[in-house]
């Protein structure tokens, strides 16, 4: 079952908390991950990018301004500079002093939970940097609990060469009528896209399933969109409001 790495046994659609539980704590920080790990969701989604000294850190935007007290690009800063930033005060006073986690710190915490992680590799990753991430996952004993995903074609192709067996998902903003050749070419286990993209190509879901691939949707935060993609047969939902989605799934 290609969904072995994705599905919670006995359940249908899985839920992933987007950047942790960003509806209740600053995104991509340990407080947001703690909430996600304490919830009923199956996966925690997070974004990874590299500092100038090639340390993988959890951060979404290209630049620091929106969610920290720093300025400029993450990729221009050393890991020591990144570690000095406040990534919580923008969200609420009680989170002042919250730091940007490294991927290593996130994995250290994930090991002591029963959750899996959807780790998005932001932008373009070299073979060496990908090897370091795969090694880090192995060192933490998390190979069966982490799925990598990316929008970057270069990153996906490099990953296929560096670690062809490692489960990965291709993020796309639109779906072709038949996405199977694309999924095959990149050797992914699933595609992830928007509800709008799936609604525009409803046959794509059947085609992917018949060929053994999954399809999941990001980032859906309303009951209407949850109902819509469930009807369309998607395998998983990434949401900013995981506890609301949990309650909705339980009630429907
Ligand atoms: O998991 C997919 C989703 O997170 C992609 O969009 O911009 O939130 O990383 P973004
Ligand atoms: Ca993401």
Automatic annotation (TrEMBL):
The record's keywords, sorted A to Z, are:
Signal
Q: What is this protein called?
A: Glycerophosphodiester phosphodiesterase family protein
PANTHER family registered for this protein in UniProt: GLYCEROPHOSPHODIESTER PHOSPHODIESTERASE, GLYCEROPHOSPHORYL DIESTER PHOSPHODIESTERASE
Pfam families noted in UniProt? GDPD (PF03009)
InterPro entries per the UniProt record, alphabetical = GP_PDE_dom (IPR030395), PLC-like_Pdiesterase_TIM-brl (IPR017946)
Which intervals hold domain GP-PDE? 13-249
